[in-house]
Amino acid sequence: MTDPARQILHVGLAKTGTTTLQRHVFPQVSQLAGYEYNPPELLEGLSRFLLFRDPADRRKIEELRVKHARVFVSDEALATWLPQHFEAAADDLLSLWGPHTTILISLRDPVDFQASLYAGSCRAGAYVRPQDFFLSNEQYGRAAPHEVHWLDDVFNVDQFDLRRLVEIYQERFDRVVVLPLQTQFDLRTLARVFNLSEDQRRAVPKQLASAPRLNSRPAAWDIKAHSLYVKLTGKQTTSPGLGTKLLSHSKTSGAAHSSRGRAWWLRLRAFLYRVLPNTPYQLPSDIYQNAELTQRNREFLAELVADERAADLCPDD
Length: 317
What we know:
By secondary structure, this protein is an alpha/beta fold. The chain has a domain at 8-109 and 161-215 and 293-312. The chain is built from 15 helices and 7 strands. It has a 5-stranded parallel sheet, with helices on both faces. Strands 5-6 form a two-stranded parallel ribbon. The radius of gyration is 20 Å and the shape is globular.
């Protein structure tokens, strides 16, 4: 069972039900288990340090970790969603939190993940053609993107190995728990992590059943319309996600100006979602994919789901 004093980090990945978990599950679970959940000052300090590497931000995080000794932090940005930076992100968290932290990693089908990631990046304001976003290892080497992780504009498909991702954290932290999207909302694994009773576990899904699913994948027409908007106006950002999110902490005026400039499109899009089919966006067939690695990733996810269901049949030690 979990050490009551152990601090817990949910590091992502993004697009694995994280918004719904963060809004409708994690706060309730934290309250039931007696954990502080996502103290704003700690989240802001983490974001700033991971982008700017300021020693003052590191000291602030260390102080806050002592202040919030029994804490649960969830931010899908912590692991990054770009596989070429998985190890660097894990090293950062190890240096900040130490090896005795419990790490939660949420995963989903690799192709669905990539489609949701790309579509979500477009909806957030970035646009890179999918054919230029999903690269082989060789193509990535030639692209020579930014050295600072999180600010890449491309996704190295050949490095998107889910088993290796989990191993990266297992090599650094004492306890790593994986939450497959397929089973995460029954909360059995979270109940074991937080030492919840069966009655407590059952209480949260009852509330979740009536809650809307949040931040779902954009419709296919939405992404096509966004790409047309970029081509016609030339307006786009260059970082599909965390880089844009983190920079907004220090450049709020620029973000506000960008928001005002796109307000008309956001209003139009809200109307179109009410009248057009909401068929989720799918990746085009001509992007680079590693079929062998995709199959291995799916087999790994199937193993995790089978192990989780088997654990439900066994009493706790």
